[in-house]
What does this fold into?
Amino acid sequence: MPRIIGINIPDNKRIEISLTYIYGIGLSLSRKILLEAGIDFNKKAKDLTPEEINKIKEIIEENYKIEGDLRRETINNIKRLKNIGCKRGIRHIKGLPVRGQRTKTNSRTVRGNVRKTVGSGRKPPPQPT
It folds into this structure.
């Protein structure tokens, strides 16, 4: 398993897919990194040479925020929204959808309103003891 920036990426997948296992790298960013490194998209991760792995590491470290730094930044952004008391921050505090989704019919589990499915409403007769 090649290890890139502290993350083990899968061996038997194409490198463009394997890079998406790193938090903060999606498919389009993965393709952009591979184009910059000059590596074929269809190459398997286990077939990479150490030079190619180092080239990918350097490109990622220089240009992109990933893993811990990115998670820390998003957490700080949410804290800032909560502290200033804006609408989005209040929605985060209450645990409701933040980006304008409807809450009447969807997001029941987020609201804590989980409904159990009910049978016919008829109770079975009591069993003799």
About this structure: The longest strand covers residues 3-4.
